[in-house]
Amino acid sequence: MKTVMVVDDSRIMRNIVKNTFSELKIPCQFIEAGNGKEALQQLENQPVNLVLLDWNMPELSGIEFLKQVRAMDQYKDLPIIMVTSESAKYNVIEALKTGATDYIIKPINEKIFMEKLSKITI
């Protein structure tokens, strides 16, 4: 079974993301983190197949997490999708240039979510 890491400082948002997988009947197990620092620590202990990452979080933002993960050889190809309310074009461009695989703007639309997931192999 595939493992998905959901990184968001909102427990409610993490639950929404997990429920979206369930509603779309995508079987997987989840690892949760409330910020980028916690996510980095968990990534050291358990391999994952996909990261869904918020931008604005305490301690270590999503974009900083992304920079650190992409600097590690073993995670250069790890699919990381930003799931964030940051909708400005420059934010999307920055995330993609930094190494995000894709970008989803909150609130999550199931059709768009499924389209984005179908583009990657987890």
Strand arrangement, major sheet = 2-1-3-4-5
Report helical residue fraction. 40-55%
Radius of gyration: 13 Å
What about the largest sheet?
5 strands, parallel
Q: Averaging pLDDT over every residue, what do you get?
A: 93
From the N-terminal CA to the C-terminal CA, the straight-line distance is 10 Å
Order of helices and strands: EHEHEHEHEH
Tell me the β content.
Answer: 15-25%
Identify low-pLDDT runs.
none
Describe the structure using short key phrases:
single chain, 122 residues, alpha/beta, globular
Write structural notes for this entry:
With 122 residues, the protein is α/β, with parallel strands linked by helices. The protein is 42% helix and 19% strand. The protein has a five-stranded parallel β-sheet, with helices on both faces. Helix 2 runs parallel beside helix 3. The longest helix has 13 residues. The mean pLDDT is 93.
Tell me briefly what this model is.
By secondary structure, this protein is α/β, with parallel strands linked by helices. It has helices at residues 11-23, 36-45, 62-70, 89-98, 110-118, and strands at 3-7, 29-33, 50-53, 80-84, 102-105.
Helix/strand layout:
Layout: E1 3-7, H1 11-23, E2 29-33, H2 36-45, E3 50-53, H3 62-70, E4 80-84, H4 89-98, E5 102-105, H5 110-118
Parallel strand pairs: 1-2, 1-3, 3-4, 4-5
